[in-house]
Amino acid sequence: MSPLAPASTTAVSAPAETDGAALKKAAQGFEAIFVRQMLAAARSTSLAGEDDLFAGQAQETFASMRDERFADIAAQTGAFGLAKQLEAQFARLLPSASPAAPAGKD
To answer: Is the pLDDT confidence value at 16 over 60?
Structure first.
């Protein structure tokens, strides 16, 4: 197997998630990406002539890592509520599970 093999081969052996859990995970992932992009856009703006004494590659890397962690935490805790709204919107499109018959009635 080459190092460039698709990652989907490992996902097949993983236990299957329910549709609702997979939807929640995807919605949180989308919110995290959205927050990262929002923070990157805000950070890319600068005042004209701004020259930071401590600016450098290490500082940029740290800021990027901090933004990624913040975005992940915000998505997991629902700080912005975007994941919850996406999950509610797309949950309506999931096939509804058939109600199980009561166990006591035969």
So the answer is: no
> How far apart, in whole angstroms, are the C-alpha atoms of residue 34 and residue 76?
13
What is the largest distance, in Å, between two alpha-carbon atoms of the chain? 79
pLDDT band at 103 (very low <50, low <70, confident <90, very high): low
pLDDT band at 19 (very low <50, low <70, confident <90, very high): confident
Domain range list for the chain: 19-43+56-91
Produce one character per residue of 70-96: b if its CB has 16 or more CB atoms within 10 Å, e if not: ebbebbeeeeeebbeebbeeeeeeeee
